[in-house]
Specification:
The structure holds 2 protein chains of 2 kinds. Chain A is mainly β. Chain A is built from no helices and 11 strands. In chain A, strands 2, 4, 5, 6, 9, 10 and 11 form a 7-stranded mixed beta sheet that branches. In chain A, strands 1-3-8-7 form a 4-stranded antiparallel beta sheet, with no helix packed on it. Chain B is globular. Classes of the chains: A mainly beta, B mainly beta.
């Protein structure tokens, strides 16, 4: 398996623009997680899906953030409009199930810079 | 939530074994002990996890104390590629928001050639 795939790897955009991050989980994994990592706040869970259904989005910072999972092999995280404070590395991870019984596998991340 | 305590940093020589400790004195009876690592400029990487018995995989071994209040990640022969921050995390078996991965300070492992 190719592992978790994320695109783009790097994104530079201007404040106010829409940003869409993409993720393809490992085939057969039922859970997908979106995390954000910054030096100040460390790794934060934004939202996770189980069987394509959003289970907990309490980590999504504002209404400017939205996530979808239209099918088992694809998810998007959208920021509209983007702001400089959204600059971070965004990771997608997948797992067989969202419990401590199973490990999570992370993608390489998307480094977002908003100027 | 049960917390973990790890040393801030450790140093090892290449090709020697490394023992990374983690204290979790408030662990519940059903919490799994997970280890992840993050290499510079890369995403977190799963290493190993266990519940009560010691565990081995191709990357490392996990030794869990009999009372489960501490555990040790063992890298049998450290390589330069093992230089990373290692995180010890407790995760409950049930689904809950608090069960998601949160990385604390971790141990920064430096490997000398």
């Amino acid at each position: 398996d190719a592992g978790v795939i994320q695109s783009p790897r790097h994104e530079v955009t201007e404040m106010g623009q829409e940003v869409t991050l993409r993720c393809k989980p490992i085939s057969g994994h039922n859970s997908l997680f979106w995390y954000r990592q910054t030096m100040m706040r460390g790794l934060e869970l934004l939202i996770y899906f189980n069987n394509n259904v959003p289970i907990d989005d309490s980590g999504m910072p504002e209404d400017r953030f939205s996530a979808k999972m239209p099918n088992a092999s694809f998810s998007t995280l959208k920021i509209q409009p983007s702001e400089p404070r959204d600059s971070a590395v965004y990771f997608c991870a997948s797992s067989l199930a969202p419990t401590g019984l199973y490990e999570q596998y992370f993608g390489p991340g998307t480094r977002l810079t908003v100027t | 939530d049960a917390k973990t305590t790890q040393p801030n940093s450790m140093e090892s020589n290449e090709e020697e074994p490394v023992h990374l400790p983690c204290n979790h004195s408030t662990i519940s009876g059903t919490d799994y002990i997970h280890w992840y690592r993050q290499l510079p400029s890369q995403g977190p990487e799963y290493v190993i996890h266990g519940l009560t018995s010691n565990v081995n995989n191709r990357m490392a071994s996990l030794a869990i104390a009999e009372d489960r209040k501490s555990s040790t990640l063992i890298l049998h022969r450290a390589t330069l590629r093992d230089a990373a921050v290692y995180y010890c995390i407790l995760r409950a078996p049930e689904v809950s928001a608090g069960n998601m991965l949160t990385f604390g300070g971790g141990t920064r492992l430096m490997v000398k050639p």
